[in-house]
C-alpha cells in the first residue's frame, strides 16, 4: 500500500470547540501512533480533503513525521474556498497547512454548488488511494459515516483495507501517555 486517505470527525462532533483544546493533543498522538507503522510499511502519500478536525490534525502530525519519514501530504478539497464559513482560527490553520502540503488542488475549480461535490470527493479519494484510515465510532455515528459506507461498498470489489481509529483508541493513548509520565508513578 502506497497511498492512504484519512478522514474522521469534525471538531464539533467530538465536543471540541477551540483550536487550543487540550484533547486535540490526544487525538493527534493517537493518529501519529497509528500512522507510523503504516508509513514504515510503505505508505508514501496521505490524501485528505482538508476538512476541519481529524483531516487537518492528521496533516499537522504528518508534517512533523516528515522530519523522520519520506511521506507526502496531498490536500484535495471538494471545491474552492471550503473554509469560507469556518471560524477564523480554523481558516488560518487550514491556509497554513495547505501552504505546507506537497500537493494542493481543489477537485472542482469553483465554489460550493451542491452535495454532488462531496460525493464526487469521496469517490475520488477511494479511487486514488489504496486504503483508508477513519476516526469513527459506529455507535455514535456522524459525518464520517458517509465516507465509511462508500468505502465498505468499494471494498466489495477492491482490495481496500479500512483502518479504524475509535474513541477507545484515544482513551488508550491517554492512559499510555499518563503512564509514560514519571510523575504518574511517583505521586507527590
Automatic annotation (TrEMBL):
It comes from the Bacteria. InterPro entries: YspA (IPR010697). Signal peptide: none annotated. It holds the Pfam family YpsA. PANTHER family: UPF0398 PROTEIN SPR0331 (PTHR38440:SF1), UPF0398 PROTEIN YPSA (PTHR38440). This is DUF1273 domain-containing protein.
